[in-house]
Amino acid sequence: MNSKPIFKRFWFWMLILLAAIIAVTLVFVLRGDGPSGDPAVVPGDVSYTLNEPAAFRELTITATDFQESEGEAPFLIPDAGNVFLGVRFEVENTSDTNQAIDQHSLFESVRVNGAAVQFSLQAALYFQADDESLDTVLEPGQRTTGWFAVETLADWDVLDLRLRNNWSGLQNATFVFGDEAALAEFETAPYVPELPPADTDPIENGPEVNDEPPVEDNDPPAENDGPVDPTEPENDNEPE
Questions:
Q1: Which sign does the torsion angle of CA 101, 147, 64, 164 carry?
Q2: How many CB atoms lie within 10 A of CB 69?
Q3: Most buried residue among 87, 145, 170, 203 by CB atoms closer than 10 A?
Q4: Cβ 113 vs Cβ 157: under 8 Å
Q5: Are 66 and 177 in contact (CB under 8 A)?
Q6: What is the pTM of this model?
Q7: Are 115 and 158 in contact (CB under 8 A)?
Q8: Higher pLDDT, 2 or 11
Q9: Helical H runs in 32-78?
């Protein structure tokens, strides 16, 4: 009985190939490398504050200054009871291609005490120097600085700015500012877009609308449509 050596059998080499694929996959997983060789980004919440560089694949973003101000009269002042909050960011292009950035595309959400707030141009003009801007195209290795500013109530506790995932990869990277007690209690919450309130009474301020279909009158018209003479006696007996 002729028998081929085991190393000449087809199924033997298939097993070797399968084992090699499994081994290579385990190496990538244990090293934390993706298929492209870039460091893998672990999903999760990462927070940064002043002078803590947030290094990502294409950009390194650092908050270099944080200020609270009541503005400057007569034009650059907040509403009564409000203050300006400004964060000065330094953004460096660490990739090998040009990166177009602007202050509106950097952040997915901006919140004060957990409530969404909007970028304030008036506040940004107060903080911003003439040679600073976050709206630019960065060449490889180039840096820029600029202020992101909001207007909020004077009794604020925590300001957090969550970066968009296209900059931070799979991380929920958030810059957080406030007093130590408030920061100790801060927790990065999932971003939920704020939707306009549902219109529960669509005709509250308008005319009343009757949704019932009109009732048709199918009764035949009366034989005498003219005016009735009250002096004429009624004749209930029909002629024979």
A1: negative
A2: 16
A3: 87
A4: yes
A5: yes
A6: 0.59
A7: no
A8: 11
A9: none
